[in-house]
């Protein structure tokens, strides 16, 4: 009687258990985009948001990425596209700001970050402009206005959590972002206006990296410096008073001589 043989091997011929993914990778030489695992394997982003981020990172600069434009390309509707964009914005992969053109039309400026943490750290660590040394006693004051005090900048950042708890910053983040806020204060923006700009139009989704979110707003929305005040016109001083050599009357003239009535007819004309 022959020995029975099993109909299938208990282990795969390759020597490892069946299941799981196997990769067949071919090198790309053109038409490709590099995507980090921090995005491709992000544990808190939806698959729609991850796919949309990869698509946006693969596009050339200045390509429209509005909600209607993206919904027209893919089967997801405008609601899912808008929700995915908000996810990417909340996690620092996208930043969207409104800008008014010289024509008066308002457009949305979108910035895509492939490594949000690196961009935020670079913006926070950017050195501030050197501050002028305080004048020594008895010396004349400098013509340039002194930079805003860093204490005021830290107060603006530390107080943001009172407006929205999602903007709670660590002490080290306050220290790193203070020079960026000082740049606003140095340009004549009141602290209340800086606070209002940073908290206006916050996304509805959770802000998981408030330091990166605020660093982008401070950099992207920085207003230009105030124009130098116009110098008042130099007043024209009148000619000095002179005493007429003919009649002793006073008259104005750049040099001594005779008044109009005492001059010869030809000279007066």
Q: What can you see in these coordinates?
A:
By secondary structure, the chain is mainly alpha-helical. Among the domains are: 37-112, Orthogonal Bundle (Arc Repressor Mutant, subunit A); 146-220, no CATH class; 239-269, no CATH class. It is 36% helix and 7% strand. The protein has a two-stranded antiparallel ribbon with strand order 1-2. A two-stranded antiparallel sheet has the order 3-4. Helix 2 packs across helix 4 (78-90) and helix 5 (116-125) crosses helix 10 (210-220). 17% of the residues are buried.
- Averaged pLDDT, please? 80
Rg calc: 35 Å
Helical proportion, percent range:
25-40%
What is the ordering of alpha helices and beta strands?
HHHHEEHHHHHHEEH
Count of DSSP H/I helices: 11
Summarize the structure.
With 269 residues, the protein is mainly alpha-helical.
Fold blueprint:
Elements: H1 37-40, H2 47-57, H3 67-73, H4 78-90, E1 94-100, E2 106-112, H5 116-125, H6 150-158, H7 160-163, H8 171-186, H9 191-199, H10 210-220, E3 241-243, E4 250-252, H11 265-268
Antiparallel strand pairs: 1-2, 3-4
Keywords summarizing the entry:
269 residues, mainly alpha, Arc Repressor Mutant, subunit A, two-stranded antiparallel ribbon, 11 helices, elongated
């Amino acid at each position: 009687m022959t020995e029975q043989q099993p109909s299938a091997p208990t282990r795969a011929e390759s020597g490892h258990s069946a299941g799981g993914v196997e990769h067949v990778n071919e090198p790309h030489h053109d038409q490709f985009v590099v995507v980090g695992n921090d995005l491709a394997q992000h544990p808190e982003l939806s698959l729609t948001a991850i796919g949309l981020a990869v698509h946006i990172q693969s596009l050339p600069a200045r390509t429209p990425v509005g909600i209607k434009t993206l919904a027209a390309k893919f089967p997801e509707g405008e609601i899912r596209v808008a929700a995915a964009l908000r996810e990417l914005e909340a996690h620092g992969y996208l930043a969207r700001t409104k800008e008014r053109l010289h024509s008066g039309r308002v457009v949305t400026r979108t910035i895509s970050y492939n490594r949000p943490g690196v961009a935020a750290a670079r913006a926070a660590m950017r050195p501030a402009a050197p501050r002028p040394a305080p004048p020594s006693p008895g010396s004349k004051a400098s013509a340039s206005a002194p930079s805003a005090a860093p204490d005021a900048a830290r107060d603006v950042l530390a107080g943001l959590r009172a407006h929205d708890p999602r903007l709670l910053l660590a002490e080290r983040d306050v220290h790193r972002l203070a020079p960026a806020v000082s740049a606003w204060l140095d340009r004549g923006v009141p602290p209340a206006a800086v606070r209002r700009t940073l908290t206006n139009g916050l996304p509805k989704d959770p802000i998981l990296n408030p330091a990166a979110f605020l660093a982008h707003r401070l950099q992207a929305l920085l207003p230009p410096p105030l124009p130098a005040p116009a110098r008042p016109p130099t007043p024209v001083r009148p000619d000095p008073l002179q005493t007429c050599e003919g009649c002793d009357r006073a008259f104005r003239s750049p040099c001594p001589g005779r008044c109009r009535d005492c001059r010869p007819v030809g000279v007066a004309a």
